[in-house]
Design a protein that fits this description.
Elements (H helix, E strand, L loop, with lengths): L4 E4 L7 E3 L3 E2 L5 E3 L7 H10 L3 E4 L3 E3 L19 H32 L4 H22 L12 H19 L4 H12 L10 H4 L7 H7 L2 H14 L7 H9 L20 H16 L10 H10 L7 H11 L7 E4 L4 E6 L9 E6 L11 E3 L9 E4 L2 H9 L6
Antiparallel strand pairs: 1-5, 2-6, 3-4, 3-5, 7-8, 7-11, 8-9, 9-10
C-alpha cells in the first residue's frame, strides 16, 4: 500500500468494498475492508458536504459468506429468553420510576422552590448502580419509554443515563458521578418557567419559540443559584455549570454565552453530548427519532467543532457505533439486535441473531461477537424504525 489517495464521493458505489481502510480525514476511519459502501453512507457524505474520502487501496467486488456458528459466544446469558425478558422488564420499570421521580422533583421545585438534595443523591446512586449492573438493558434506549408522561421528564431521565454512562466510561470518581447525575437530572429545570404550550408543541417551533426556549439554561442556572444561596445544602459550582452550559458548543456557536472549548466545563461538555444524542434519538410530535448509528456518525463529524473528542469517544465506547437495542443486518443477510458493545472496537458489537438470511426465526437465537476477522460477521446496515415496526407486525421480531 502507498500514500493515501482521494476518492471522489460521486465515484463511490453501493455494495462495493475497498481492500484498505476508507478514511474520512487523517484521523477517522470511515470503513474497514470488511464493511461495504452503503447508499446511506454515500447520502450522508453528500449531505455533510464531503467531496472526497481517502484510501491507500482500491475498490474491489464484494461477496457474502456463511456465518460460522462456531464463533457464537458459548454460554452467553442473553441466549436465555426468559432472563433477557426479565432484564428488559426490570430496565423499563426502573426507567418509569426514574421519570416519575424526576417529574416530582421538578414539580416540587416549581411549586415550593425546594430540592431534597439527600433524596436526589440517593436516586443518582441508584442510576449509577443500575448502569453498572444492568448496562446491556438500561442502555437499550429504544426500550426506555414512559407513556403519558411529558417529554421534558423522559428526556431528562434518558439524558441522565447517557451522561452517567459516559462518566463511568471516563472513570470519574463516585463523588463526581453523583454531581454529574444531579446536574443532568436538573439540566432542564429552567423549562418550568417556560409555558408548557411552547415546549410541548405538536408543530415545529417558530423563531420566537426557539428564542424563548433558548433562555432555559440561564433560567435554570439562576433558579438553582438562588436556591443554593438560601439553603444549607447548596449545589456545587460544577453542578450549576453543567446546567448553564449544556447547550454550549466547542466552536462558540452554542448558547447562552457562545463559549468556546476551553471555557466549557467537563459537565457542560458531557451533558451537551448526552442531551443532543437523546434529543435526536427521541420521537417528537413533528418528526420521528433518528437511529443511533446515523446520530453517532453525525456527531463524529462534528466532534472537532461542536463536541469534545474525549466525551464523544466515551459515548461511542459506551453504546457502540451501532447502539445497543438497534436492529441490524449482518453481511450474510441475517438479522439481529445489538445487545452489548462487546469488544474494545465500537464498530464490532455483540449481536443476538433473530432471523436468518431467509427470514426464518432462529430457535436458539445465538449471540455472536461481530469481528473484522470474518467479513460475514460484520454489520451491513441498521434498520429504520418503520422497518422494525413492519417486522414486528409480521411477528418476526419481539415487541
Amino acid at each position: 500500500m502507498g500514500a493515501k489517495k482521494l476518492v471522489p464521493v460521486k465515484d463511490l458505489k453501493k455494495d462495493t468494498y475497498y481492500d484498505a481502510p476508507l478514511w474520512l480525514d487523517e484521523n477517522y476511519i470511515l470503513l474497514t475492508p470488511d464493511i461495504p459502501v452503503t447508499q446511506q453512507l454515500i447520502t450522508d457524505l453528500q449531505n455533510w458536504g464531503f467531496k472526497s474520502v481517502m484510501t491507500e487501496g482500491s475498490m474491489v467486488a464484494g461477496g457474502k459468506a456463511a456465518v460460522d456458528m462456531d464463533s457464537t459466544i458459548s454460554g452467553a446469558t442473553l441466549n436465555n429468553n426468559a432472563k433477557e425478558q426479565e432484564g428488559r422488564n426490570k430496565a423499563r420499570k426502573f426507567f418509569n420510576e426514574l421519570v416519575i421521580y424526576i417529574q416530582k422533583v421538578y414539580d416540587k421545585f416549581d411549586r415550593d422552590g425546594d430540592l431534597n438534595i439527600g433524596s436526589i443523591t440517593e436516586e443518582v446512586k441508584k442510576v449509577i448502580e443500575m448502569i453498572k449492573e444492568n448496562r446491556v438493558y438500561i442502555l437499550r434506549l429504544p426500550d426506555l419509554k414512559a407513556d403519558g408522561i411529558d417529554y421534558l421528564y423522559t428526556h431528562s431521565a434518558r439524558t441522565m443515563i447517557i451522561a452517567l454512562s459516559i462518566g463511568i466510561k471516563m472513570k470519574l470518581p463516585t463523588f463526581r458521578l453523583i454531581e454529574l447525575g444531579i446536574s443532568t437530572m436538573l439540566h432542564e429545570i429552567g423549562m418550568v418557567k417556560i409555558p408548557k404550550t411552547v415546549y410541548e408543541k405538536t408543530t415545529p417551533l417558530t423563531e420566537n419559540d426557539k428564542k424563548l426556549i433558548a433562555t432555559h439554561p440561564s433560567l435554570g442556572f439562576k433558579l438553582l443559584q438562588n436556591y443554593s444561596k438560601t439553603n444549607t445544602t447548596p449545589l456545587s459550582m460544577d453542578i450549576l455549570m453543567g446546567v448553564w452550559q449544556h447547550h454550549e458548543r466547542s466552536n462558540g456557536t452554542g448558547y447562552p454565552k457562545g463559549l468556546t472549548d476551553e471555557s466549557i466545563t467537563l459537565f457542560g461538555k458531557i451533558i451537551a453530548v448526552a442531551c443532543s444524542y437523546d434529543a435526536q434519538i427521541s420521537n417528537r410530535p413533528w418528526r420521528e427519532g433518528i437511529n443511533g448509528y446515523t446520530i453517532i456518525m453525525s456527531m463524529l463529524k462534528s466532534m472537532n467543532s461542536f463536541y469534545d473528542k474525549n466525551v464523544i469517544t466515551a459515548l461511542l465506547m459506551s453504546i457502540s457505533l451501532y447502539s445497543i437495542g438497534n436492529y441490524v443486518r449482518l453481511k450474510k443477510g441475517s438479522i439481529g439486535i445489538v445487545v452489548d458493545t462487546g469488544s474494545k472496537d465500537p464498530r464490532y458489537p455483540v449481536v443476538k441473531l433473530l432471523l436468518d438470511e431467509e427470514m426464518h426465526i432462529y430457535k436458539e437465537q445465538p449471540v455472536i461477537q461481530t469481528t473484522p476477522d470474518k467479513p460475514e460477521m460484520t454489520i451491513e446496515g441498521v434498520f429504520s424504525k418503520e422497518e422494525v415496526e413492519e417486522m414486528k407486525e409480521k411477528g418476526l421480531l419481539p415487541s
